[in-house]
Design a protein that fits this description.
The structure holds 2 protein chains of 2 kinds.
Chain A (H helix, E strand, L loop, with lengths): L8 H21 L7 H11 L11 H35 L12 H19 L4 H27 E2 L2 E2 L1 H25 L2 H12 L7 H19 L2 H9 L1 H6 L4 H23 L5 H13 L3 H25 L8 H23 L4
Chain B lengths: L1 E10 L2 E11 L4 E5 L6 H8 L7 E6 L2 E2 L5 H7 E4 L11 H6 L12 H14 L14 H16 L7 E6 L7 H18 L1 E6 L3 H7 L2 E6 L2 E6 L1 H4 L2 H8 L3 E5 L6 E5 L8 H6 L1
Classes of the chains: A mainly alpha, B alpha/beta.
Chain lengths: 353, 273
Amino acid sequence: MQAESRLTFRFYLIVCTLLLVVVSALSLYIGAVKIAPQDVLSALTNYLHITDHEPGRYQSILLDIRLPRVILAIIVGAALAALAVSGAAMQGLFRNPLADPGLVGISSGAALAAVIVIVLVPSIATIPKSLNIYLIPLAAFIGSLLVTLLVHQLSQVHGKTEVSTLLLAGIAINAIAGAGTGLLTYMADDTQLRILTFWSMGSLGSANWAQLFFAAPIIITALIGIYFYAKALNAIALGEAEAGHLGYNLESIKRRLIVLVALAVGTSVALSGTIGFIGLVIPHLLRLFIGPNHSKLLPLSAILGASLLLLSDLIARTLVAPAELPIGIITTIIGGPFFLWLLLRFKRQGSII
Amino acid sequence: MFKLQNICVQHLGKKLLNDISLEVTAGNVLAVIGPNGSGKSTLLKTLSADLHPTSGLIQLDGKPLHQYSKKQLAQVRAVLPQSASLHFPFSVREIVEMGRVPHSGRSLNAEDKRIVAEAMAIVQIEHLKHRSITYLSGGERQRVQLARVLCQVLNSSNEKRYLLLDEPTSALDLSHQHQVLQIVRLLAEKYNVGVMIILHDLNLAALYADHIAVLKDGGISHYGAPDEILQATNIRDVFDISVDVAPHPSHDCQLIISNRNTATTSKHIQQSY
């Protein structure tokens, strides 16, 4: 694509932000219970102490159920956009457009660690439920960190990323994590089983303020942290040796990026389970429009990722209302074919890497 | 000045470089030639601090190389390795601008932009600046990368800078090969840059280099001015090929003419004649 035909970064920033606002508004308005737009507005203005109406019937549905969920979707979306951003960062780090936290097994590693905590910890010791909020994300972080390090170690051959090894390692890790989760499912009791189903397919259904207050700062910090490496990621795209010649200390940058990616992915998985393909689809889509410059790609990935996740969540909870589809199914239905299309495109260009 | 003293590099028990002493001085062009596997790229990687010598000392402007931080090094020397593949469609201008990274803050200032434009003008790739690198030919990509490293060493204050080039002409047609070498001369003479360039074409070395170092089996077999080094017997010793050396008809240097058959060609090929 000619760079001239790329419209400006600012234009896309505005478009993506508008999309996010519109989808957020829609998500507040549409749901299993029909709420009139003016009721949505008055509940919001009440909440922000702009107006002081009599609380309407729907105030609690809006404020306690939909609003946290929208904010969660935005944050998880941003976190899955952190998946998207992480995807973008990993694609930069591995110098390969096919790297994605889901495909290479980072998400499932995080999920497995979380599932281990859910099933095994209550039987070992009685830990207050309030602590679980912190324990699960911590486990998920450690799980994703371990997998990222493992995958990175495995796929590096003489300082270059071996793509086939990267993807095969992903297959193996996904399979192992699947088996582990299966084993734990076998051991789980009824309550745990319900939680596990949620993990395996991903959902924003359990969103609540307590989780948000814990997760949001971590995810946002990780995202801002990743953004600081935008220029370094551009240089890494030239080649690892080249980035070194430009003055970047590759080893320490890699280490920090891996920890930040693991933090973002781990926390988002802890919040919402594994939601696939966002990390792959978003950066690719954006690269087609704005090019590969990470200073633009990373922030836009966050905003567009949040929008897409919010939209998927909206579809997930309205399509079969009042029941809910797991959101992971929606993103995979969109992302799976997209991935195939991507492979076809690379095939036509003559190279998979 | 890059100063190498008794450099040895060993990898997996194999001696890649053996007791190399060499200087790359600002304002001069040093061409490194030698057969495949003689250690040319290893030498370049050692100078660019990608490889650490097993023994010996490398100094850059009087200070040991390992005492420089990566960033400090990037501010005084640029490296053009043999081409790496790029999977992301950066525009030519974006690639060239990356050469300013060691010098600029978060964004490019007016001086940086001037140097970016100057580098693209010198390499004559301005007409490509909005094109995506992934859609360019191998030769065009090589020139874009050259513009990037040019951008890294150019400076208005004429401070000492160094440029290490690993076969920058490998994918280029004849006229662009000479263009690259002319740029190298321009850098040395006008911008006070010290250049070490790995070349395969002995005639390019004869035409453009101030000094030539000949590598063989990891050691320096010959070193000196092109006229002294490029003798038929020397070339035969090092490259196992028979050549004639004649005065260049239009320049004050030698012309190396390789002959068809060689005394030491392998028996298999001789038998098939």
